[in-house]
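Reading a protein record of the kind used here takes only a little practice. The integers have meaning only within a learned vocabulary of local backbone shapes. With that in mind, consider the following protein and its fold in token form:
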Amino acid sequence: MLTAGVDLAAEPRGTALAVLDWSGSTVTVDVRVGVTDTDIAATAPGVEKLGIDCAFGWPDDFVTFITRHARGDRVELADDEGMAWRRRLAYRATDRATRAITGRWPLSVATDRLGLTAMHCAVLLDAVTDAIGEPVDRSGAGTAVEVYPAATLRGWQFDTRGYKTDVGARRILVSRLLDRAPWLGLDDAAEELVVASDDAFDAVVAALAARAHALGRTHPVPPGYQDQARREGWIALPVGRLEDLAP
């Protein structure tokens, strides 16, 4: 089995791709930073799962809101006003489910800086569609699946404080990851890259989350949300332990 992970940025310079080969007793890791959509799309047909760290869509209520506003229609969508109403515009169903599981809100694709990267992701998903020969199922039922590396790590009981900005914190986190997953075959160059670059590190974690999803070790889309997940996307949060992924 091959799984891949993408830490997506608005531009290729900050985008990283990791491919993990699970066919042996040691998982080989190929990780690169500065990859293009062409690089990612070329990888997609050869992997079991491609985990992408970015929102796959926008909230249904937000799409309705801006569509009505663009037409010049009145935009009230509900009787309740204030924060609860705005949160329905800002957050997807999967964001609310993620908060229920993790206790934290993900970034809002509608109101935070994530929106720029999500625009890139929409184009990337088209490229992946062309490469695999079928539309990407944003619920995660096909090749591509939406993942959330920081929440994945916390779900596996890692301390993620400071790892995005502090090289020292990231070095400790990488060391602890390898202690618990000695089968993860980071060579010296790859290990130094994931310590030096949070993008590279998140790409590796995204590929691990893709493995969890391929094994059925992620929270499923709840009953009644499948159609919405196909429009908005759905974050695959692992259940169980990191150790359960061992080849």
About this structure: Residues 2-57+92-245 form one domain. The chain has one domain: 2-57+92-245. The radius of gyration is 18 Å.
